[in-house]
Design a protein that fits this description.
By secondary structure, this protein is an alpha/beta fold. It has helices spanning 2-9, 15-21, 26-34, 39-57, 64-72, 82-92, 169-183, 197-200, 202-210, 227-239, 252-264, 278-285; strands spanning 130-140, 143-152, 158-164, 190-193, 214-217. It folds into two domains: 2-92, no CATH class; 119-285, Nucleotidyltransferase, domain 5. 43% of the residues lie in helices and 12% in strands. Strands 3-2-1-4-5 form a five-stranded mixed sheet, sandwiched between helices. Helix 4 (39-57) crosses helix 6 (82-92) and helix 5 (64-72) crosses helix 6 (82-92).
Length: 288
């Protein structure tokens, strides 16, 4: 690697200076230049091209575990180790985006009835056993819009989502109704949310009762009770929303449709699902 660096930089600096700084001999460098490229180096170069292609196809969001999985599951699989992929990614300067913190939109300053947290009492083993939901905000040059999402806790599939310019009960109700139409769950489904006034409202709770859905809410001030939904929003913002700027509110919905329906549900490999996408996970287990 040192000799390769010298070879790349010798157009800018003297070879003798580069070799002295890197503590290698100039004779060794010239001997290296006279040798043919090793078969290992040729394979590494070809594998790096494949890695870069997978990295680009997945919006530059995959680290070495997911890229290794993609390479292994291609129609014509690429045989390589996960450590080798990680090494080549480091050498190529390929790093997946990281998840920063973000603030929340919960308004729990109300006197509406709240439900207990029922998630700790169940083991989720099938789809439509537990749904989680939440709201987040998205900045545009025209002002904020709000995104309400309903997700199946078993498969991590987003089954209802709506974008609107205001944070209202209609926003979360529309996302819930979308999920109900798509899934038509049997009675007994647990629906988990925070204690926000939109979810605690009489209108929202009435829809839950009409569909024999059991409400569940996070403890006061404890966002970790809804960790799966928080993780979903962090991923969404990091991998799509914060990587550009929306000039208008109208741009948000089609862009999120491309990400949620085209990538997050159908293609993105989730670590909680054994590096499968939600759609593939549901298809494999045939429980949704």
């Amino acid at each position: 690697m040192k000799y390769r660096f010298v070879d790349e930089q010798c157009v800018f600096h003297r070879v003798s200076v580069l070799c002295r700084v890197l503590t290698v001999s100039t004779s060794g460098y010239y001997a290296w230049r006279g040798r043919a490229e090793s078969s290992r180096a040729v394979t590494d170069r070809r594998l790096t091209v494949e890695i870069k292609a997978v990295f680009a196809e997945n919006h530059q969001t995959y680290g070495s575990p997911r890229i290794w999985k993609e390479l292994r599951e291609k129609p014509e699989p690429t045989r390589c180790s996960r450590k080798r992929v990680a090494r080549l990614m480091r050498q190529a300067g390929l790093r997946s985006v990281r998840k920063p913190k973000f603030k929340h939109t919960t308004d729990s300053q109300h006197r509406l009835p709240v439900a207990p947290n029922r998630l700790p009492d169940i083991v989720v083993v099938r789809c439509n056993q537990a749904w989680v939901t939440d709201v987040t905000y998205i900045w545009t040059r025209e002002g904020f819009v709000y995104l309400a999402v309903v997700m199946d806790l078993y498969s991590r599939r987003i089954i209802g989502w709506v974008v609107r310019p205001r944070l209202t009960r209609d926003l979360v109700l529309e996302a819930l109704r979308q999920a109900l139409v798509r899934r038509r769950p049997a009675p007994g489904l647990i629906h988990h949310s925070d204690r926000g006034s939109q979810y605690a409202s009489a209108e929202y709770q009435a829809v839950l009762r009409e569909n024999s859905i059991i409400p569940s809410m996070s403890g006061k001030g404890n966002c970790y009770d809804n960790a799966a939904m928080e993780s979903c929003f962090a991923t969404l913002k990091l991998e799509r929303i914060w990587r550009g700027t929306y000039d208008t509110r109208a741009e948000v919905t089609p862009d999120l449709f491309d990400y949620i329906e085209g990538f997050y549900n159908g293609r993105r490999r989730h670590s909680s699902l054994g590096l499968q996408s939600p759609v593939d996970f549901e298809r494999q287990h045939d429980l949704c």
